[in-house]
Amino acid sequence: MAEAVANVVRRINETIEDGNDALDLSNCKLITFPDGVFKLLTSVSDNIRVITLADNMMKSISSRLFTTFSLLRELDLRGNLITKLPEIVGEMEHLTCINLANNKFSIFPDKLTEIATLERINLEGNGITEIPVEKLNGMPALKWLNVKANPLDSNTQSALQSPHNFETEC
Length: 170
Fold this sequence. Notes:
Structural class: alpha/beta
Number of domains: 1
Helix content: 10-25%
Distance between the termini: 38 Å
CATH architecture: Alpha-Beta Horseshoe
Number of strands: 7
Shape: globular
CATH superfamily: Ribonuclease Inhibitor
CATH class: Alpha Beta
């Protein structure tokens, strides 16, 4: 455990010292996004545009992540145990790409359809049966949706076969 904590601190310090706009905490054995990270990154949170938390063991994401890093453009949460996103995700005004592949979603995170800037959604390898295709069609920036390896019901599969404004992988 001490090694995992040291790895997280090292990566955060590198981000701060190098003035990076990306924070990569993938493969850090995280169960949650550590509160200490918010404190350490207070001075540079407005500079962070990309956060990668892939391949950890996180079951949920704190709404504080979205309020602290409000200028976030890309969020990679693939390979965790997440079942839902906080409501505040719908208020992310700059988010263009979210990767939620290989998590534990059984319901499509509806709040994503409220993000006008969102271009790419990856939900491959979850347990989702229904997709709100009409709401997705109303998203002005959406270009790509990946819902491969989900147990989509027949109505959803049919709806995804119809022409729409975005490319679909299912």
